[in-house]
Amino acid sequence: MKIFIDSANLAEIKEAVSWGIIEGATTNPTLMAKEKNQSLKKISQEICRIVPGPVSLEGNASQAEEIIKEAKILAKIANNVVVKIPMTIEGIKAVIKLNKEGIKTNVTLVFSANQALIAAKAKATYVSPFLGRLDDIGQSGLLLIEEIKKIYKNYQFNTKIIAASIRNPDHVKQVALIGCDIATIPFKVLKQLYQHSLTDKGIALFQADWNKLKI
Ligand code: G3P
User: Fold this and answer.
1) pLDDT tens string 44-100
2) How far apart (Å, rounded) are the C-alpha atoms in residues 75 and 73?
3) Is 27 in the pocket of ligand 1 (CB under 6 A)?
4) Collapsing DSSP states into helix, strand and coil, what is residue 179?
């Protein structure tokens, strides 16, 4: 499973990339809006420069022709740009055209297996089911990922599944067990993946014993 960082914060992205395991990044307007007083274009360029892999950038157009125009502008920012497009009829019309023009897409705000089926039929490069937001309304985000995985396997679709809206380390473990292609993970959760209280306890004990050694 590939690991992407779900962030638009340059400090977080730089640090996570320095850990050596990041293979892409995803952003959205909410994440961008948290980065106050910075130009959207500059942040986007910088993320694309830092991240060794695809970077999903999202616009705000709603009609297919407008989405396509916006996607072409975003795609010019860097070679690793993937255009994030919401799951709507107009969005999917745009995905079909953009695919023919060689522009990579990530169909976002996906909450059902049928939406993911449509995204794959449109030959989206990626599909982003939102786990946490489904869990928030009492539905199972993990079940959705399993369903999408099965449907894509049944028909050998090439669209890659990005588990998004990940809220905790257990989400990461569960999507890895399912065999999801990619998990896009917020910085805080990424850090938690490295941690265990017994690791800390073990290090402290080894350190204390090390100090007793005669070298
Ligand atoms: O990248 C989009 C997605 O990960 C958003 O997550 O926590 O706002 O539901 P969240």
Assistant:
1) 999 999 999 999 999 999 999 999 999 999 999 999 999 999 999 999 999 999 999
2) 5
3) no
4) coil
Ligand 1 and 169: CB distance under 6 A: no
- At position 61, the amino acid (one-letter code) is A
d(CA 121, CA 22): 28
Closest atom of ligand 1 to 27 CA is 1
Active-site residue flag, 84? yes
- The H or E element spanning position 163 is strand 160-163
**Per-residue tokens: 87:** 């799951």
Query: Rounded to two decimals, what is the model's pTM?
Result: 0.96
Atom of ligand 1 nearest to the CA of 6: 1
Ligand 1 mean position, distance from CA 215 (Å):
51
CA 188 to each of CA 27, 73, 114, 151: distance values in angstroms, whole numbers, following the listed order: 15, 31, 31, 32
- 104 ligand 1 Cβ < 6 A: no
Each domain of the chain, given as residue ranges in start order, spans: 2-212
162 lines ligand 1 (CB under 6 A): no
Rounded distance between C-alpha atoms, residue 151 and residue 117, angstroms: 7
**Which CATH number among 3.30.300.20, 3.20.20.70, 2.30.42.10, 3.40.640.10 corresponds to the domain 2-212?**
3.20.20.70
Q: How far is the CA of 204 from the centre of ligand 1 (A)?
A: 36
